[in-house]
Recover the amino acids of this structure.
């Protein structure tokens, strides 16, 4: 057969099947010595640069080389790994031989055309989104990107209709340049822009590429499906218009401009249900929340209208301050094609993105519950999913976004991926995108976890729903985060009383003249013959009538129940009364069983010799029943709960070992670094101890643990700060959720916060857990704040968290130097029998003067007690009693009064290490005065002994610290 008898497609197919080895050998020679190949090949391979191997492999059908990450080439725009395709045929003869009849020039030219076409295709995969038509307002001016111009690859207009072999890429073996350009522009530059080439996992990239480029590129919407989309848009738009009409100017943070979110969320539920999804936990800011509550979650419209009229969101017999309506959560069940999806929308404050880690923590807990084990299984991860809705400015600007993304890939916090929807209003309050972020998108941070990112025009409902479907399929298949950036607009201002034209006149002029998404989609369906205009108008009128009926019913609507103590919370009740110790003591035989189990050196584990000595010391404590130190008491609290069937979860920075090398609840083999957890080897049928060293994050991790505690009331959930000083990095989580969540949203939490605290001369960042801030937030019996002095009290404080019929957060100022203090120990007997937690500890020193002869009572809490004790002993003082307030809030007025009444002739001093404007002084002084007045004590008011007011929590100079410490002790003990 003569060379010219080949049809173009037959020739190129033969060329790149039979002659792939020849081209590969040429390229290999070029890599070793460029001068060893013909100059024409030299210039060709040099032009390709680092892309040559990948692109040649594309034609050959297999990779010739790869790096450790499975990615070929080193360019910043790394190529995708394509779906597998049949292996090429064996070469019958080298190119240019008599058998093939093809010259080397012909081989080179055909190869050059094909590889240049593939380079262009790959560039569209990387940068095509930069020319996608994403802005429904058409305000964004996108310049033509030079790398997306076929002329940049050496082609001219004369090449547009010449067939080029591309080896089944884009679903075509051979295509003209014109066809290739049309396909890549339609795929990557339409109403959807895709960013996925940053993903290093070959399978994930191949899946996305096939899903976007393949024959399944478009979801085939049925007539009923399109009508359903229009109906959901009608409901979303109609609800907002109705509220605007009835409550003009009232804040509601409406969804106008982003109504397409409603059918997108329903697609997640529908497709997710088909793929095994059973439950979704949603978190979102306030914009569009009322629409999601009603049109997605199914909250009755009349309930929302009732709240607008000022009625309570909860039954009148339920206490609490409540919150504005656009912060509230709810739960419901939705049925899609026989698959029931349970939805729960987390309540959250106006602090944008703060709810993100809370949602993830809830999801993790629910997954463990469904799996019946810790950690959750892949199946349970597919059954429960988090969905987070973001604003564009917040996603780019709020630090909790990367903190939460970071958790998604970590063992102790993994949830199997979150679907992130960004309601991209193209503005943040009044700040335009160019002033609020760098780059064209708010989504760059998502690349840090290699999440695929889909940008989609919010005025194209079918494109949005299609991408929502792909996102759901990706998450369910790969159990990884995925981001959907819905580019839309905000029809109102930041709120409905705002005038946006003050700062964005051109944008809002365009918005005023821009048809709504519903109007545009209605016109499209009318043009397609799917529906008539009267039917479109009828949808609007019918929904309006429904809302009018719901509005009339709202005047008499009353919520009939609160759901806060249902499901996992059934059997628990609101806290009542003052004496709420709980049943926390443990039989001695159980204490010894647990203690000996956790102090045993495990066989087959090469334990560090220093830790072996610590374990032996613990064993001696248990066997003797004396000298139980802080860490041992904690381990006994954990272990006894575990054998009682209560799981324990502890996370934070370095918690396995403990910041101060005190805990060692995870033993590391010194040869293999395999981990052994003694607390999980007490009994075969015990609950699980889940301990995780967290990333260097406070807000994200604390939010996660808080969310976990919201979903799991029957486990002890603890977060420990590396030093208590660093807790202010999570202040928003503390202020907006932990301290106020029960009052605002009727959501209990038993979360424990362990905050190392104490003045030992370590400077201003390693001394204070900022107790004053927690005490300032104390009110309405919202939590417990403790500064404990004995291991026994610590033991009971931990156990009572899950041994009572209610849950309250617990803040504990934990010790540092006291961890190894010879006096900071308890007998085993104080953990057993009838022992319990003591909110106040009186002075039981044997040689203390008779109560009537005591001249002063020094009140204190925490580590300073031992300093006072040592100084009193050194001075030989017998007539000063030291009384410890172990629980600062709720304030133990009754117990303190009983102690102070013992010493009717004494004056009263409050002693603390912290400066006067910090610590507990400002919180306690009037309360102590109230107690003294109540019992008729002569002291009247307490005096203050401590550091003077200061801007910084502590000095950084050890000499000055020692002087300050000596002075405050002298003030406390000098009568």
């Amino acid at each position: 057969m003569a060379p010219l008898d080949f049809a173009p497609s037959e020739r190129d197919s033969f060329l790149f099947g039979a002659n792939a080895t020849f081209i590969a050998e040429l390229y290999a020679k070029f890599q070793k010595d460029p001068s060893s190949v013909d100059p024409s090949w030299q210039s060709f391979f040099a032009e390709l640069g680092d892309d040559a191997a990948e692109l040649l492999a594309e034609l050959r059908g297999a990779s010739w080389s790869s790096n450790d990450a499975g990615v070929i080439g080193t360019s910043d725009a790394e190529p995708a790994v394509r779906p597998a395709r049949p292996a090429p045929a064996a070469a019958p003869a080298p190119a240019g031989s008599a058998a093939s009849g093809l010259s080397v020039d012909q081989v080179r030219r055909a190869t050059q055309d094909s590889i240049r076409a593939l380079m262009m295709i790959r560039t569209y995969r990387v940068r095509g989104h930069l020319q996608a038509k994403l802005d429904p307002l058409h305000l964004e001016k996108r310049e033509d990107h030079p790398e997306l111009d076929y002329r940049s690859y050496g082609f001219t207009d004369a090449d547009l209709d010449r067939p080029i072999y591309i080896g089944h890429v884009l679903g075509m073996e051979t295509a003209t340049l014109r066809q290739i350009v049309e396909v890549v522009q339609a795929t990557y530059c339409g109403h959807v822009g895709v960013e996925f080439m940053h993903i290093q996992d070959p399978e994930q990239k191949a899946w996305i590429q096939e899903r976007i480029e393949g024959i399944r590129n478009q979801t085939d919407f049925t007539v009923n499906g399109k009508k359903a989309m229009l109906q959901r848009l009608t409901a979303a738009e109609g609800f907002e218009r109705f509220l605007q009409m009835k409550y003009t100017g009232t804040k509601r943070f409406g969804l106008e401009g982003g109504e397409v979110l409603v059918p997108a969320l329903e697609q997640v539920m529908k497709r997710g249900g088909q793929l095994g999804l059973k439950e979704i936990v949603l978190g979102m800011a306030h914009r569009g929340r009322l629409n999601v509550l009603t049109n997605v979650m199914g909250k009755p419209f009349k309930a929302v209208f009732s709240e607008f009229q000022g009625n309570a969101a909860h039954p009148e017999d339920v206490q609490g301050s409540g919150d504005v309506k656009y912060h509230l959560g709810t739960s419901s069940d939705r049925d899609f094609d026989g698959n029931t999806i349970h939805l729960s929308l987390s309540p959250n404050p106006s602090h944008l993105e703060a709810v993100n880690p809370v949602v993830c923590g809830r999801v993790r807990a629910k997954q463990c519950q469904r799996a019946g084990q810790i950690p959750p299984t892949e199946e349970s991860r597919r059954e429960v999913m988090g969905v987070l809705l973001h604003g564009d400015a917040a996603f780019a600007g709020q630090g909790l976004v990367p903190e939460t993304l970071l958790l998604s890939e970590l063992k102790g916090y993994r949830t199997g991926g979150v679907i992130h929807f960004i309601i991209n209003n193209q503005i943040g309050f009044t700040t335009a995108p160019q002033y609020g972020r760098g780059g064209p998108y708010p989504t760059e941070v998502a690349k840090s976890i290699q999440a695929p990112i889909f940008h989609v025009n919010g005025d194209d409902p079918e494109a949005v729903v299609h991408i929502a479907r792909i996102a759901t399929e990706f998450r369910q298949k790969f159990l990884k985060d995925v981001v959907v950036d819905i580019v839309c607009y905000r029809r109102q201002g930041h709120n409905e009383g705002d005038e946006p034209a003050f700062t964005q006149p051109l944008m809002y002029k365009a918005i005023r003249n821009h048809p709504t998404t519903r109007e545009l989609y209605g016109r499209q369906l009318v043009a397609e013959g799917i529906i008539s205009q009267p039917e479109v108008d009828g949808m609007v009128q019918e929904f309006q009538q429904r809302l009018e009926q719901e509005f009339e019913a709202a005047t008499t609507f009353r919520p009939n129940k609160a759901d806060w103590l249902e499901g996992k919370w059934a059997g628990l009740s609101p806290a009542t009364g003052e004496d709420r110790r709980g049943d926390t003591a443990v039989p001695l035989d159980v204490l010894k069983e647990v203690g000996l189990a956790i102090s045993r050196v495990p066989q087959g584990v090469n334990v560090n010799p220093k830790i072996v000595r610590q374990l032996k010391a613990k064993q001696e404590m248990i066997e003797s029943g004396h000298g139980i130190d802080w860490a041992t008491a904690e381990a006994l609290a954990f272990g006894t709960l575990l054998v009682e069937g209560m799981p324990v979860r502890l996370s934070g920075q370095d918690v396995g070992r403990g910041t101060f090398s005190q805990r060692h609840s995870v033993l590391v083999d010194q040869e293999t670094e395999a981990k052994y957890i003694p607390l999980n080897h007490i009994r075969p049928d015990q609950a699980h101890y889940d301990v995780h060293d967290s990333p260097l994050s406070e807000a994200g991790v604390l939010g996660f643990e808080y969310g976990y505690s919201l979903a799991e009331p029957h486990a002890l959930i603890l977060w420990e700060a590396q030093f208590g000083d660093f807790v202010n990095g999570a202040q928003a989580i503390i202020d907006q959720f932990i301290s106020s969540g029960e009052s605002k949203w009727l959501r209990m939490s038993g979360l424990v916060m362990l905050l190392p605290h104490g003045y030992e001369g370590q400077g201003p960042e390693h001394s204070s857990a900022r107790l004053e801030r927690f005490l300032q937030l104390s009110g309405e019996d919202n939590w417990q704040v403790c500064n404990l002095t004995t291991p026994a009290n610590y033991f009971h404080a931990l156990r009572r968290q899950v041994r009572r019929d209610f849950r309250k957060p617990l803040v504990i100022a934990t010790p540092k130097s006291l961890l190894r203090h010879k006096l900071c120990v308890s007998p085993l007997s104080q953990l057993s029998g009838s022992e319990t937690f003591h909110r106040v500890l009186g002075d039981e020193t044997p040689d203390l003067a008779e109560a009537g002869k005591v001249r002063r009572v020094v009140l204190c809490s925490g580590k300073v007690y031992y300093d006072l004790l040592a100084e009193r002993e050194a001075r030989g003082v017998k007539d000063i009693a030291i009384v410890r307030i172990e629980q600062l809030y709720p304030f133990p007025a009754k117990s303190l009064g009983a102690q102070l009444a013992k010493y009717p002739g004494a004056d009263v001093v409050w002693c603390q290490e912290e400066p006067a404007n910090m610590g507990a002084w400002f919180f306690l002084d009037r309360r102590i005065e109230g107690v003294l007045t109540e019992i008729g004590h002569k002291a009247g008011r307490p005096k203050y002994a401590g550091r003077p007011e200061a801007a910084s929590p502590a000095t950084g100079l050890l000499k000055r610290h020692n002087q300050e410490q000596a002075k405050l002790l002298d003030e406390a003990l000098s009568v």
Summary: The chain is about 40% helix and 10% strand. The first helix runs from residue 8 to 18. The mean pLDDT is 89.
